[in-house]
Amino acid sequence: MITGAHDLWRPSSGCDDDCLPAAGEVPTVPVARRVLRLVAATGMLVAGVGLVLLLPVLPTRERQAAVRGWARATTRAFGVRLVIRGRLPRRRALLVANHVSWLDILAVLAVAPTRMVAKREIRSWPVVGLLAAAAGTVFVDRSRPRALPTSVGRVAETLRAGRSVAVFPEGTTWCAGDGTADCRPGGGFRPAMFQAAIDAGSPVVPLRLTYRCEAIGSTTTATAFLGADTLLRSVARVVAARDIVVTVTIAAALHPARAADRRLLARAAESAVHLLPAGGVARTRLRPVPTVTPAVAVPTPVSGRNLDLAA
C-alpha cells in the first residue's frame, strides 16, 4: 500500500512530551548564564557564515581543522561539553550514528569535519541551512522516494572522491532515554545509504552519541529534539541545562565485501551503536548474502541494484 511505503520512507519515533525531563529533574543555570550562552551561540553561528566564505581557499588540512574547531566552539557556546572516545580511521568512510538532537550535527562535525546527509527542510533553517549547503551537504527530499537512488549515488561519488560522509540512518530523532526502547524508530537503521559505502569500497564507522547530565550523574533527554518540539523550545531547554556532556564513542570500522548486502551491513552497524559495549566492535569484513527482492521497488538503478522505499 502507498501509505505503508510512505511510512517506511519517513520513519517516526514513539516519543512524546512524556519522554522529556519533568520540571526540576535537570538542574538549570541562572537566567543570566542562559542569555550569555545564547549570545555566544549566535555569535558562533554568525562566525560560521564567515567561515563558509573562507573554506574554499583553505588547503584540505586547514579546512578540516577550521570546521572541527568551529563545531567544538559552537557546541561549547550552547553549554555542552564534548567527550570523544576512540579514534577514526585515516581513510575516508561512511560515518553512521544514532539521532537524538540537532546537537548531533555539531558533535559529529567536531569529531570529523565531513559532509552530511540531511533532510531537505534543513536547507531553509536560518544560518544553519546556509552553512549546511556551503559545506556540501547531501539534502534528501523525503517527499520524493524515487529520488533516493540519486542521493545514494551522490554519497558514493563523494566517498570515491576521498571525502567522508555522515548520515543518521534511523531517519528521525528520538529521546534515547534509559528504558525507552519502544521509542526507537521502527525498522532500525535504513539500509539505503549503506549501499553507497559498498559501491565506493568504503568502510563504515558506527558512532554512538549519548547525552549525560553530570549534575545528576545520569543520561538525560533534555537535549532530545522530538517530533512535537520546536527548534526554539529545544534550544531553550539546552541552554538552560547545567553540566550537559555529549559523548561520541567511535566503534571499530566495518569493512563490507564488494558484493555485501546493505541490509546486513546496516544491522551490523546498528548493533555496534546500540547493543555492544562502549569499547566498540571488532574489525569485521562482511561476506555477501543473498539479496531479497523488495516488494516495492524504485526503478532507477544505482550501481546495478534497485533501492526500495525502505532501502
Automatic annotation (TrEMBL):
Keywords in alphabetical order: Acyltransferase, Lipid biosynthesis, Lipid metabolism, Membrane, Transferase, Transmembrane, Transmembrane helix
Pathway in which the depicted protein is active: Lipid metabolism
Pfam families per the UniProt record, alphabetical: Acyltransferase
Residue intervals of the Phospholipid/glycerol acyltransferase domain: 93-212
Keyword Iron: no
InterPro entries on file: Plipid/glycerol_acylTrfase
Transmembrane segments: 35-58
Keyword presence, Hydrolase: no
Top-level taxon of origin: Bacteria
GO MF terms held by the record: 1-acylglycerol-3-phosphate O-acyltransferase activity
GO terms of biological process kind: phosphatidic acid biosynthetic process
Alphabetical list of PANTHER family matching this protein: 1-ACYL-SN-GLYCEROL-3-PHOSPHATE ACYLTRANSFERASE, 1-ACYL-SN-GLYCEROL-3-PHOSPHATE ACYLTRANSFERASE-RELATED
Protein name: 1-acyl-sn-glycerol-3-phosphate acyltransferase
Biological source species: Micromonospora jinlongensis
